[in-house]
Amino acid sequence: MRVFQLFHTLLVILIFARLIMPLLGMNHGQLYSSVYFYSEKILAPVRKLLPRSSIDWSPFVALILLNLIMSFLLPVITLAVQGDFEGVMYLSAANILSLISSISTFFMIIVIVKIVNDHVNGQYSGLTHFINSITLKPMRFVRQYLPNNIKKYTAWVLLALIIVLKIVTQRSIENFLLNF
Questions:
Q1: Rounded CA gap, 24 and 30, in Å?
Q2: Is 170 helix (H, G, I), strand (E, B) or coil?
Q3: Nearest CA among 87, 63, 67, 74 for reference residue 3
Q4: Is the pTM of this model over 0.70?
């Protein structure tokens, strides 16, 4: 298990080095080239999944994904190595519910920022573009089921649905842990 932790730590250090080195004026030379080369192997696939933006969000998303993977995967592997396969199933289910809860929290924040940004007639900045690109598909999905007189409240309806999902997921986690 320490191998996974060491690998995780090295990846995190590599990504942080990639972020910090240019700020310190170290954006050239052999060390920077190596850091850039190896970190790009992690960041490029993440960047392809993200909407285009003037800000490169891939290091931040990669760090979040690495931490999620380690917090979910390591305990499951530990139980599997110990032969506790029933525990693996319970823990995997709890991890999935926790992941859904985390994603719903993220989307709640994004939708709240969108509502506020739309209310203050936010300029078409990188953040506005990023938020609109994330919320476009969920907003379209919700809007298609709303009557015409309510369509202008699509973001609010989406927020309400996400809050309901968050509450249901949290209660499911609590019930699941009580029965575990």
A1: 15
A2: helix
A3: 74
A4: no
